[in-house]
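Q: For a teaching handout, I want to show students what a protein-ligand complex looks like in token form. Below are the inputs, and the small molecule is zinc ion. Please produce the holo structure.
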Amino acid sequence: MTNIRIIEKVGNNPGKTTIMITGVHGNEKVNVKLFDRIIPELRIDNGRVVFLYANLEAIEQNKRFIDINLNRAFIRELLDDEDNKLLEVQTAREIIPYLDNADYLLDLHSSNSPDSKPFVICEPQSFGLAKSMPCGLITFNWDEFEPGSTEYWMNLQNKVAMGFEGGYLGDSASGLRAEEALMNFLSLTGNINCAIRRVPNKKFLRIVSLYKNKESSFGKSREFADFEKLKEKTLIGTEGNKKVYADKGNILLFVRDREELDQECFLIAEEIDKENLLNIKEQDNLFKGGK
Ligand SMILES: [Zn+2]
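A: Here is the structure, written as tokens, with zinc ion included.
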């Protein structure tokens, strides 16, 4: 039995291998529909493109996941534990050979939140390509706080990899944005010959902390805007009787009420200015400015 579906398309000319993934979260249907729509008509010019529908069971049930978050399952200890038969761990085992054979990865996601902003998740080796994605925000340094994503697995091999969060899953514009991301990506990897529309003025945000509730349930103090800029001493929420503030950084992401312990309650990021970005980008030797 398999929990993934693969469609491979090969160009007439040699080139790189790119993997494109949808359905890591099964309820993010907008990008599953995008794959259904574009794959039949897309022609690959160079190299090979593998389209992978992940977590078919979660897609079928319209759930984010069945047993655990697939986007935290690409962890060596989980995968090597033969007794671990959780559906998403088995699914990660199925996906890994395709990641290991690919040069580049684009993993498409969308958000449950109607006011969510589109953004890229990647590490500095992928900044050159990320700069051509149709969104204003590039976020990085996730792997330290939220290991186990598909990008995490590729980053361990220092490959170019990114997650693209296209916006609200109930908005058809998110699908169009993801389509533009996908086409731009394939153009920059050289898999298709087509011009791209550049989106300038990117902000770069470094993830600096993740708050997990260790002792009690967590409740947010109010609704926060996506990527809300915090004023000093903003109360983010309470864990039992304890008031919780940001310890560093000033941009708040994904605040969620949590009943169970040791859950991801929120993340904090800081904006990296141009000067500091130059130091980071020295590692960025691929896709300098695109092509
Ligand atoms: Zn997702």
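A: Two things your students might notice: Residues 24-25, 28, 109 surround zinc ion (CB under 6 Å). The chain has two domains: 5-188, 208-270.
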